[in-house]
Amino acid sequence: MLKVWKDSSRRPHPVHLGSQQTCELGEFGVNDPIALPELSSVGLTPETDSTGTVSLKRTRQSSNQDSDTHSIQSLKKVKTSAPHSAHQKHSSSAFTSGSADELLEFAKTRNTIVIYSRPDDVTDLASKFLMWAAGNLTASSNGDSSRRQVSVVVVPNNTPIDGLTTKIAIKSCLKVAACHGHVDTPDLSLNQVVVCSVDASRLVLVLFTTFTIYPQTLLGHVTRGIWTISHFVAFVITNAHSSLWEGLPLGDVLAWFCRSPNIFVRPRILTFSSPITGADIETMERMLLAETVYSAPQRLHPLQTVVQYEPTCTKSQSRLTQDIHQLDPSGNMCESLLKDAHCTLQALGSCASDLVWRRALKEIGKIPERDDDDPVEKGASEIRNLIENWDFSMPNTNPSSRGFNVTPKFARLVQVLRAHRSCGDDFRGILLVQQGCVATIMADMLRVMTDGLEFLRPFAVTGNLPVIDVQYQADMRRSFETGKYNLLILTKTLEDLDVPPALLVIRYDVFESQLSFSYACARACLPSSRVVHMAENGNDMHRQVLTQFSEGAFSESWIPVIIHNGGVPIPPSPLVENRHPFQFGDEDDMSSWPYIEDPVTGRRLYEYDALEALYRFVAVMQKPDLSGAPLLITREVCVPPSQQAWACTVTLPTGLLIDHVTGPTRLTPTHARRSAAFEACVQLYEHGTFHNNLFPVPQHHLKPDASGSAALAADKVSGNRCYPRKRSHFWSNSIHLHKRRLFPFVVYVDRRGVDYAPIMLLSRQPLPHIPSFRLFFPGTSETIRNLRAPPLELDEQRLEALYLFTLRICRAISNKPLVCPLEKIAYMFAPLKLPEQVDARSLDPIHLADYISWDTIELAGKTWMVKFDLEELHTSSEGVDDLVVQDRSVEFTRRYYVARLRRDLTPLSKPEDSPREAGYVNLIEYCKARRKCFEGLSDYSQPLIEVFGVAMTGNHLNPTTRAAATESVKAAVKCTSVCRRSRILTLLSSTFRTALLLPSIMKRIEDFLIVHELNANLFGYSIHENLLLSAISAPSAGCEVNYERLEFFGDSFLKYLASVYVFVTNPAQHEGALHAARQRIINNKVLMQSADQIGLPQYIQSKPFSHKLWYPPNFTVDPLSLSTIADPAYSGDEISVTADVLQCKQDSASQEEDMNASNVLKKRKKKLRDENVTQWLGDKTIADVTEAIIGAAYMSGGQDNAFQGAKALQVPIPLIHQWQDFRRNTPAIPSTPSRPLRQGTIGAVEAIIGHRFRLPHFLAQALTHTSVEGHDATCCERLEFLGDAILDFLTVRYIFSREDHLSPGAMTMLKGAMVSNATLAALCVSCGLHKHLHFDSYALATTFETYAQKVEANRLEAEATAKDSLPTQHWLQVEPPKALSDIVESIIGALYVSDGFTLDGAEKFFKTVLKPFYDRHITLKTLSHHPTKILFELLQSHGCQQFELLKERDDLTQETRCDCIIHQITLASGMGGTAQAAGRAVSVLALDALQCNPEFLSRTCDCRESRRSNKGAQARIKRILVEEIENENAV
């Protein structure tokens, strides 16, 4: 039986596959007979009416009619951008598309240039044009045979003109002569042209020319008057390009014809060209006075049909394969054949699996020859004997037969093909499969099958040869056109081959790919073509993909792109591509193919993937308001020796660092397009523009290993587990790649007024997108931004200099002797020195390399310090600018920034602004008293240098960063240091300031690399990286962001998701059972186990960043260099008991430690391993991260994205694959309630909630109370259960949007107040929903009436007594009936189910009724009668324990002042007549301040990190809280 594709509600879905036509996706069930040609020949689609009767609906003929009658004036014009800016001002106008008839009408009125993509476009339109020209000539001549005018067709030199002549003659019914240029034609006095002796008015002369000689002869005859314009009526140029004729004789002839002053005798010119650049279009338009149009097929969408098949009974191996496996248990001898046998078994059946081995016997090298001396080859000999003696069976497609040896899928395919036997020799089909081995064996099976398949001549097209071999491709195309092969079996990797259109295109495997769908439509562009989708019966994934085809989710604008091979502007609509991988296992060996490797995930982009990746990239980058230029421009080129070849140019969207990429010359257009696309991807990747999500996902990278728990150890007491800490694979994957080619990544501090120089990070592979982030300093924060630049090619000398500079800067910022070999170094640093007028924000990425300070790099690489130049100190102030100095000549010591040169001071002066020398006559006396062995100075008149200390490297990722406990007073450098021991660091101070931030910067970059890896492996880059970083960051890590807010949001969504799931999958269970089932899904233990199985714990960031333990990758501390940390000759210069003496002691201690350096390193080894390699996590932390990731997924892409994130996290919801499955899997619910509602109830409720019920009986179920006799309470309870979860989620989402930075503790309090029974009951009474509840209980009616009266009375009283005009929660002191809150929840559940499991109605109800109520009554300030309690609970939820309320009585004003102090910072101050009133007032103000400044606590409170909490503090807070509440109650 033929029927239409339906969902569970049995409603047909129309297929909106274009704006000009509508077709429907027909479906054949698993047992339906198939009769495709008869249906397609008349353009009918099946349609089922309400009675179940199948009728046929005419769809395509009407669309063709519309297309035929579509006037040429309605074609939309767009501007074709020139590839170079010099030509943009002359950009021409071109029609985007047009049918052959439309183009002909256009060509009749003006000279026309047609940009085509298929040869059929040329012959069809040229034939019609020539017929018009001949007919027009006949009408104008009026029987005058003396007017001997001809039409000339010019073809390229290498084109076989005999075939073209025959095609034109057949299609145009004209007399066509072919001229090969070797016969004299004295009739026209043109030696190289021949004219047949026929009526000139019906003659078409085909001129074969080399564009260099024969046009010159033609030009000579024209200029001498032998031939005149009147001899020609039309010119047709089949494949022209301006570079082939510009400045040559043919161009002069055509230009002379076009510019004749007699416009009535000018021949009409029709020129065909493959897609070319805008500049070439302008040149040809200028030469020919022509306009340009793009050809397009008459119809974009063929008729589509779904053929269902039964699921395949899974078998691991056929009998033959089992026997071979016994002979080769390890599988080493026939590894590839075993894989092919398994793939064909799953796709085609046991017969196909056996044919893999039989085919292997015929192919040399597949199975080794016999050799009894070699044990391996002896085993291979046994395998050969087994295969040779095996009794192979023919394919049996009869499912009822005992010998059925194919899959049900292949049997249905045979039925589809057999239905086309009536087409006979006219049949042409294309079959798309996933793997090459399946294509090959399928062709073998179809070739030997009879019983209605004798008309088939299949040919399998696999491997890379059809792409690169021009002769192979030409033979294949010619064989398909002539009918030698009438069924091409292509793999998905060969979809972009130039294949003629076919009558039937079968998609054997379901691909969720818009490009694959567009390729199928492009190959089925004939009037009677059809696309058949093979789908497994009951497979929800197949149904999901096909639903996208039927519901118009795939834009038709991509089909012309595929038809024209990218030669038209790319539409600005994202491509829908499946993120799940495809297996192409048996394609040619890819080890020698060029590829790009993503160092984050290890994924590879090969040449055959590049075109799809480029399409996806441009689709996202293309702007909607710009038509753009054609993406791919493929043209013919000549390569020696006179060989035809192709080259392709890629025109990229504006705004990128590169605009055009020309690929290498290839022998086929397909290979040229692929090579150009791959080259464009390479350049985009190297410039940092190519996003990592464009890399294809191999099967083994779909998700991490889920074999078991990754925990290394467990603590039975605490329940915590030890997990490995994740390290990014980026550095290890990229370290073996480019040696001399480095990729710049500039980081700079976005801060004005402070001298932070940009630093360039040079990696061996381009870093992925790293968003801007903040670093924190005492009392402030700064934004770190980054900039990418084109790759740098460095010679060995500069590479060595960069390597030494990187070692120097890493040793300087860590104060440790770090070492790393050059071949193992992951990245390098380079300082940038910008001119004064250049700001880091305005840097041009193209010229970033010009700002590299190579002098500084070379100097710092050679030495870590230089001496002072005393003469320069006397003569210039510029000598101390941007310097870092040391007071001793060792590498690892104290350092100082130079503030200024003090020319007003000498060593004999006493600095008045320096308290350090206050007790001494001058600086010399101070040095004599404080420094050992002071020998005086050679120059007592030298100026002094004012310096301030360099702060040590710190953790700048923690918002609660405290100032370092170092002396910050100014001090003059000692005179002896200037002359003898003081040194200048070879790193400039502006560079050194930024360098001290590098540990924190590199840690944040490492975090984002880990996020990229997690996002790629589990979520297909569907979650925003900033949100995902927050989701995996625990509060204990002490970072700016953590998972608490997202966990709060994700918890509500997970509750909502699980509630819908158990509601659908347990249709007969009551509310209590649903609660239990939901708990089995969302409890922490289940979430932890699911996350553990996929390896999530290793990605969690739970430890604070330890800057002291930071090393770049592969850097180690050199134990042999530890003795240089402190030089005994210079230690202890100062002998006072101040900080200098402490430094002396530290230096002495360091000497002692250096003597035992190896012992120290051994003691710290275990600690370092614990800090950097492992971490201890609790089950709740892992579960919280899981919920936070789900919340981040929702914030990134909405409900469907969060659902897929939950599936990726292995949340146990196995029966549902997409959100729409909830609607399809819902069992039917009775359409009539047990007791009807009062008349007008439904309309009144719909007026209140602002939404109409699609299925009103759900509302009746929700409003019927259990007291009604005969009512089934289960249905109402189930709706209430569902509505409770939905309301919870909508409320949390609303709080999230309203309070965008509120702490989770405050949001929890707000949500608890909003969804409480008391609040919902008051809301129900407020909006009047309680009046429509259907119940049979007098007591319940009395309770409702009493409650409503009390709430209303409290409201009036509160409004009358409110001093600050703020609404209050007037309902809190009235006990609510639970039935009132149940009404709200059950109505929300009824709305959700009625709307097909979408939130449309529930959101409208929330926005209309709940949101205004919440905005008016529930905020932090109106949350409770005890604002102090709310304040204390809020602070404690954040973990803060350093806060207090200080009260002071003012005797003059007789008022009390109260200050709220948090971490010694006054947050708010309030006044009151009494202490109690002041405390209440300051609590309200503090809550308001925290709501307005939500980052205050995260920036100020570090109680969690410092672990200052204790029982005494808890008791003190509890005591203060009790006192404040008692005082407020007294007030």
* SS summary, helix count: 52
The helix content, as a percent range, equals 40-55%
Through-space gap between termini: 82 Å
State Rg: 41 Å
Biggest sheet descriptor? 9 strands, mixed
* Shape field: globular
Structural class: alpha/beta
pLDDT < 50 runs, ≥5 residues: 1-24, 37-96, 141-148, 181-215, 581-588, 700-706, 964-977, 1123-1155
Strand content: 5-15%
Taking all residues together, what is the mean pLDDT? 75
Task: Tally the beta strands.
Answer: 45
Features:
nine-stranded mixed β-sheet; disordered N terminus; 1531 residues; alpha/beta; 52 helices
Structural commentary:
By secondary structure, the chain is of the alpha/beta class. The protein is 41% helix and 14% strand. β43 and β44 form a beta hairpin. α11 (319-327) packs antiparallel against α14 and α32 (1025-1031) packs antiparallel against α38. The radius of gyration is 41 Å and the shape is globular.
Q: In summary, what is this structure?
A:
With 1531 residues, the protein is α/β, with parallel strands linked by helices. It contains 52 helices and 45 strands.
Describe how the helices and strands are arranged:
Layout: E1 2-4, E2 14-15, E3 23-28, H1 36-41, E4 44-48, E5 54-58, H2 60-69, E6 77-79, H3 85-88, E7 93-95, H4 100-109, E8 112-115, H5 119-141, E9 150-155, H6 161-172, E10 175-178, E11 203-208, H7 214-223, E12 232-237, H8 242-245, H9 249-258, E13 268-273, H10 278-288, E14 291-294, E15 303-309, H11 319-327, H12 335-347, H13 350-362, H14 375-388, H15 408-418, E16 429-433, H16 436-448, E17 458-461, H17 465-468, H18 470-482, E18 487-491, E19 504-507, H19 514-523, E20 530-536, H20 540-550, H21 558-563, E21 595-597, E22 604-606, H22 607-621, E23 632-639, E24 643-651, E25 660-662, H23 669-686, E26 713-714, E27 721-724, H24 730-734, E28 741-749, E29 759-763, E30 773-777, E31 780-788, E32 792-793, H25 796-814, E33 818-819, E34 827-831, H26 854-862, E35 865-867, H27 870-875, E36 884-886, E37 895-902, H28 923-930, E38 944-949, E39 971-972, H29 975-981, E40 983-985, H30 989-995, H31 998-1019, H32 1025-1031, H33 1044-1065, H34 1071-1082, H35 1084-1093, E41 1116-1117, H36 1139-1155, H37 1157-1172, E42 1174-1177, H38 1179-1208, ...
Parallel strand pairs: 3-15, 7-14, 8-13, 8-14, 9-11, 9-12, 10-11, 12-13, 15-20, 16-18, 16-19, 17-18, 19-20
Antiparallel strand pairs: 1-3, 2-3, 4-5, 6-7, 21-22, 23-24, 24-25, 26-27, 27-42, 28-29, 28-31, 28-32, 29-34, 30-31, 33-41, 35-40, 36-37, 36-40, 37-38, 38-39, 43-44, 44-45
